Amino acid sequence: LQGYASEMDNPNLVHLIPSALQNKKEILFGNLPEIYEFHNRHEIENCIENPELLARCFLKRKEDLQIYEKYCQNKPRSEALWRQCGDSIFFQECQRKLDHKLSLDAYLLKPVQRITKYQLLLKEMLKCSKNSEGTAELEEALATMLDIIKSVNDAMHQIAITGFEGDVSELGKLLMQGSFNVWTDHKKGHNKVKDLARFKPMQRHLFLYTKMLLFCKKREENTDGHEKTASYSFKNSLKMSTVGITENVKGDNKKFEIWYNGREEVYIIQASSVELKNTWISEIRKVLT
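User: That's the sequence. What structure does it adopt?
Assistant: Structure tokens below.
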């Protein structure tokens, strides 16, 4: 923030800033200032003498840690901008002054790495504190961190949905997302279609919201020599208020059915494991009840 973000306002360097970067500081850095302020409270350091207070610290800050979700959601936009102007003289000059071996993008990745490190540290602490004071709180803190990582991860997938006409933010909370084999069976239409549908499944990425279930097709795109980025092109949606569910499908304990309008449309969904199927079913049940 001091060596790069502040330098964008340095009158001596203004002429070096590429035009693509003009007024885009918020996109490049996201809410990094907010994360910096949050960690400036040094609450974790205060637990060094009393490690049993650590878990409470995480639980107290549960809401605040959502700032990471915001940061990660912005990350793809930030990376796209960096690819456009990361090799500019402006950044080289800042890096030289700081005497950093790594360029800025390596540091912009740190918050993403940090939020995943906490749960590892809490797991390690749990190993060292079997049945001692504060163990229950540590377990709760770990569960909280895993929840936050899940919502960060879900949010990262959600921003890659393309072609959905509505506004995703109006669909309620994103509860689950993941890839499945899907077969469809429509009452209406030609019988032949129905027979064909029996055999070859479609690969679909499902997003379960409190108000709607979205079916998308995952596309991998190569971004000029960089890592593959996935996008999810919207195929169809079911309103959760009109959906029914059949938990068991004959012949395969990893399959379940979601049907629409009194079985006018039936979607047979196959999970990669029985555990995964059960997690989805219990989440869908919660929504339906």
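The beta strands are 161-162, 174-186, 202-209, 212-222, 228-239, 243-246, 255-260, 265-270.
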